[in-house]
Design goal:
five-stranded antiparallel sheet, alpha+beta, 7 helices, binds ligand Q0N
């Protein structure tokens, strides 16, 4: 872990440290959450898979948008990042109707002010991807907001730019993934401003933790889809009749191994790099 670095924040499964005035260290742990609860059992290398995948996407989307990645450390789970002034909105893009998007559509026929066609089912592909911004509510949960509210929070110009860039990033990644058997149903981006007030992509992007990844060969709209990465863990948790409150159950060895295998499979399909080659030299994803 970093020696003289200040801990500046943590998510459920990641930690953020200040390296100096301009740089942060983002460290992805092997923790996994299901049904919003972090489980007591870790998935070995999960943090490395997510770090490697995010770095892969950062390298391949540089012409769409600059990003905060400065370097990837040899441990494969830590990235040195430029410190940004983060926008107070989460930039969500949805290509399919799931989660809160499906919930809002079912109740109102709209999602974040987008009026959608009638007759869509849970997990239906949308006629075109939509930008559905959210804010971190006081509860710590994300809350969908309409376009007007988001534009008030960041200003009309930045809102328009964040929407355009988010849709471009999603379009590129979703097409790449679909050709490799993975549907990226939706994804969340976090942007910040650099010292010249340019929009820069931050956080961890286009990973299974920041997106819904579905196996394309099992896609069947009309209900919930299996998660590419977490389905073994979810099925096991469901089989116990756990009430989904903290603490969650320990995962048995076979569920851990199966889940690790799915993360590694997502990495290898998308990056087309052996995960062992990544472990030997993480910078392979940047070349
Ligand atoms: C930042 N968050 C929210 C890590 C991610 N490049 C940056 N500069 C300044 N601040 C941030 C970043 C980034 N990325 C992003 N908080 C601060 C997401 N966190 C949650 C905890 O784990």
């Amino acid at each position: 872990m970093p020696e003289a670095a200040l801990h500046v924040g943590s998510g459920k499964v990641r930690e953020l440290y200040a390296l100096d005035d301009d740089r942060l260290l983002l460290v992805a742990s092997d923790r996994i959450s299901t049904f919003d609860v972090v489980l007591p059992t870790e998935i070995p290398d999960k943090g490395r898979v997510l770090t490697g995948l995010a770095a892969f996407w950062f390298a391949r989307t540089r012409d769409i948008c600059p990003n905060h990645l400065l370097s990837l450390r040899a441990d494969g789970r830590s990235t040195e990042c430029r410190r940004l002034e983060m926008l107070p909105i989460e930039c969500v893009v949805r290509g399919y109707l799931s989660g809160s998007g499906w919930k809002d559509y079912s109740a109102t026929g709209t999602v974040c002010g987008h009026v959608l066609p009638e007759g869509l089912s849970e997990s239906s592909q949308l006629p075109e991807p939509i930008f559905t911004p959210a804010t971190k509510a006081a509860t710590g949960h994300d809350e969908n907001i309409d376009r007007e509210t988001a534009a008030e929070l960041v200003g009309a110009d930045l809102f328009a730019e964040a929407e355009r860039i988010s849709l471009a990033l999603y379009g590129f990644a979703a097409a790449h993934a679909r050709e490799r058997g993975i549907i990226i149903a939706d994804t969340k981006f976090e942007f910040g401003l650099d010292d010249e007030r340019r929009l820069v992509l931050g956080d961890e992007a286009l990973t299974p933790d920041s997106s819904r990844f579905w196996p394309a060969d099992e896609y069947q709209p009309g209900g919930a889809q299996p998660s590419f990465d977490k389905q073994f863990a979810r099925d096991y948790c469901e089989s116990l009749g756990w009430d989904k409150t903290d603490p969650g159950p320990e995962l048995p060895e076979d569920v851990v191994a199966g889940t690790r295998g799915r993360y590694v499979e997502a990495f290898e399909r998308l990056a087309e790099i052996d995960f062992d080659a990544y472990l030997a030299d993480p910078e392979v994803v940047l070349r």
